[in-house]
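Summary of Year 1 activities. Much of the first year was spent building the evaluation harness for sequence design. The harness presents a backbone, in tokenized form, and records the residue chosen at every position. We chose the following record to illustrate the format because it has been used consistently in internal testing since the harness was completed.
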């Protein structure tokens, strides 16, 4: 019997490992299973005067429910909730002091964004959020930030809010961390280091998934170029060393379009639960 569904899934991994495609596919799969699931992305975690850029979904995935969370909007919402005035909140967020404070304190933007995500989940008890998180190191900073701010503000409203956030963010029944990697030694090592760092931080069962696996293609590429055979050999070597560390594999998809890719991934997506 598999684990129960989480409310928040954090997808991360080294850049280029396919976490965006897999998190989008997982969100779509959850929807097809009858769940209210939304794919979520974050804006840059700094406040600037530049016009906000709303991220668009990759071609073929446009029908997946998507929220792009802008830091400035999240900050305004938080301050409005605390002060009871949207007008005052908008003014505060625009001040040079507040912007400098957010940009100067490492992880402050992530604390605001994570707080907004957890608020959304609290407001809709049926909602599942699949967060396409920043690459490895930034994702860890995001998860550490709330704990760090609890230490900085040891009393008062910020302390109380971070305590509530940590109770959910670090709850293994509520949050799942899914680390994507490639079948190479360096990529696997980085994934293992991230998993260990997450476990030191919180009792979350972070799981590693191997993407772009060629195992299922082994018979078809017997007459393939030497480079492709070498790639398969390296994958076998990685799996021999780390088979106990990999929770599942996703086969390499030769389809250039989202529909074909989803079809190839569909059978294994349930394992991400």
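For this record, the design step produced the sequence shown next.
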């Amino acid at each position: 019997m598999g684990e129960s569904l989480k409310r928040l899934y954090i997808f991360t991994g080294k850049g280029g490992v396919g976490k965006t495609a897999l998190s989008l596919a997982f969100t779509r799969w959850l929807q097809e299973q009858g769940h209210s699931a939304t794919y979520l992305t974050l804006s840059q975690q700094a406040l600037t005067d530049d016009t906000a850029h709303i991220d668009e979904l990759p071609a073929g995935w446009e029908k997946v429910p998507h929220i792009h969370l802008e830091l400035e909007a999240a900050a305004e919402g938080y301050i409005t909730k605390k002060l009871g005035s949207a007008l005052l909140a908008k003014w505060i967020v625009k001040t040079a002091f507040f912007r400098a404070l957010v940009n100067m304190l490492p992880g402050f933007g992530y604390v605001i964004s994570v707080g907004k995500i957890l608020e959304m989940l609290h407001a809709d008890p049926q909602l599942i959020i699949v967060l396409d998180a920043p690459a490895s190191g930034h994702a860890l900073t995001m998860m550490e930030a709330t704990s760090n701010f609890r230490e900085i503000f040891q009393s008062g409203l910020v302390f109380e809010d971070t305590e509530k956030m940590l109770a959910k963010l670090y709850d293994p029944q509520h949050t799942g961390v899914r680390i994507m990697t490639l079948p190479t030694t360096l990529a696997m090592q980085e994934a293992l280091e991230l998993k260990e760092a997450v476990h030191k931080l919180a009792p979350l069962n972070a799981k590693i998934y191997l993407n772009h696996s060629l195992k299922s293609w082994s018979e078809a590429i017997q007459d393939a170029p030497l480079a492709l055979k070498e790639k398969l050999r390296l994958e076998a070597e990685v799996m021999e060393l780390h088979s106990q560390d990999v929770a599942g594999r996703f086969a390499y998809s030769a389809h250039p379009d989202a529909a074909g890719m989803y079809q190839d991934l569909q059978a294994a997506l349930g394992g991400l639960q």
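DSSP finds ten helices and seven strands in the chain. Quantitative recovery figures across the full test set are reported in Table 2.
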